[in-house]
Design a protein that fits this description.
Helix 2 crosses helix 5 and helix 11 runs antiparallel to helix 12. Strand 9, helix 8 (about 210-215) and strand 10 (about 220-225) form a beta-alpha-beta unit. The longest helix is centred in the C-terminal third of the chain and has 21 residues, at about 275-295. The mean pLDDT is about 95. The strands form 3 sheets. A 7-stranded parallel sheet has the order 8-7-6-9-10-11-12, sandwiched between helices. Strands 2-1-3-4-5 form a 5-stranded parallel sheet. It has 12 helices and 16 strands. It has about 375 residues and is an alpha/beta fold. The structure holds D-malate (MLT).
Length: about 375
């Protein structure tokens, strides 16, 4: 029986996808794992583990590169929580323009003033005047599923949008709002934007991208919004910029100890995807990706292996994770041909150092052939389904 370990609480809507599987928090040697934010760096991987599905976008809690070496596929759910994050960003744009959080805190200090409250409110409110977002420029770093939704919503609210994404997909390019100023590099965004929102994954390249040098390139009084990952920003540099007024506000869904209590740092406790709608969407998408991989070998939305997907044909499917090096394919296919098996359909694709081959065969390969393929230096894992 296929066994799936639940490492976090996952929406019950995923349960339907795992009918006929064992699916619980207590699985010793799972074939697949469903995870949200549990840190997996020290998770003791056992021999059966084929795939991990993250119900969410970021995969920095999973040792993705190490798993790739073992032929363990890591999936995420891009777009499934995009609307929830977009709505939080829109809220934060207003929090950035106006001193709403400070004002609400101040009103709490009026508790006990009895019938003087209305008078005190009118007298004190002047300290909390703010500005509108209409007509201001929003800079978007990263036009993935979230960045696109944010850009469109901001444009609909009357903001000008400038943005950058070196990996912009054709599908997202056509979804950009009319009139968006798509620029070549981030510096052009920093120069133009009154508000900056970042929607990129945490990688060695993006870690610390908002440091002193970058912030210096922004407009005086810019608002920086970070719902992606805390490590994208250097908190010391941000605090310094808030102190000098270079940044008028830093709004983050990833607070750290240094930022809490700093004037004009608005700390939100990672609420971006915390809506039942987003949790349901992510859980169902992750469960579908995981089951399709375990049962059919299809890979869609993996962060460490390429997308490879085919309708089933033939009598058996051979799935091989291999290094992306020349002649590997011919060695694998030679082993199949040696047994007199015909390949009816196949796909092979690579992502960086790794590649994945799926072949539909007219009959199942023998254990001997599978062992032969597995023994190739370039091969990381073999499965016949
Ligand atoms: C994501 O990575 O999808 C969001 O930060 C929300 C989450 O961590 O679940």
């Amino acid at each position: 029986m296929v066994e799936i370990l639940k490492l976090n609480k996952i929406s019950p809507l995923a349960d339907d996808c795992f009918k006929g599987f064992a699916y619980s928090e207590n699985i010793e040697n799972p074939d697949g794992i469903m995870v949200r934010s549990a840190a997996m760096a020290d998770y003791p991987v056992k021999d059966r583990l084929l795939a991990v599905a993250r119900a969410g976008a970021g995969t920095n809690n999973i040792p993705v590169a190490e798993y790739a070496k073992k032929g363990i596929v890591v999936f995420n759910t891009p777009g499934a929580n995009a609307n929830a994050v977009k709505e939080l960003v829109i809220c934060e744009l207003f929090l950035g323009g106006r001193k709403i959080t400070d004002a609400i805190d101040w009103v709490k200090t009026l508790k006990g003033e009895g019938e003087n409250v209305p008078k005190l409110v009118e007298k004190g409110k002047g300290a909390f005047a703010g500005s509108e977002i209409y007509g201001k420029t929003l800079g978007v770093i990263g036009f993935g599923a979230i960045g696109i939704l944010v850009a469109n919503a901001a444009a609909a609210l009357g903001m000008k949008v400038v943005g950058v994404d070196p990996y912009l997909s054709a599908r997202n390019a056509v979804a950009l709002p009319a009139g968006v100023n798509l620029v070549e590099n981030r510096d052009e965004v920093y120069k133009a934007a009154d508000f900056i929102t970042v929607h990129v994954p945490l990688t060695p390249d993006t870690r610390g991208m908002f440091g002193r040098d970058t912030i210096a390139k922004m407009k005086d009084g810019a608002v920086l919004i970070n719902n992606s990952r805390g490590e994208l920003a250097d908190s010391d540099a941000v605090i310094e910029a808030l102190g000098s007024g270079k940044l008028s506000r830093y709004i983050t869904d990833f607070p750290d100890d240094k930022l809490i209590g700093v004037k004009n740092a608005v700390c939100v406790p990672h609420l971006g995807a915390s809506t039942p709608e987003a949790e349901d969407n992510c859980a169902v998408m992750a469960a579908q990706e995981l089951t399709d991989y375990l049962l059919n070998g299809n890979i869609k939305n993996s962060v460490n292996y390429p997308a490879v997907s085919m309708a089933r044909s033939g009598s058996a499917r051979l799935c091989v994770h291999h290094k992306n090096v020349k002649e590997t394919l011919s060695k694998i296919l030679a082993a199949v041909a040696e047994e007199g098996i015909n390949v009816e359909n196949m796909q092979d694709a690579s992502k960086g150092e790794y590649a994945y081959l799926m072949c539909d065969l007219d009959r199942a390969p023998s254990e001997k052939t599978l062992e032969k393929i597995n023994s190739l230096d370039e091969v990381l894992r073999v499965r016949a389904i």
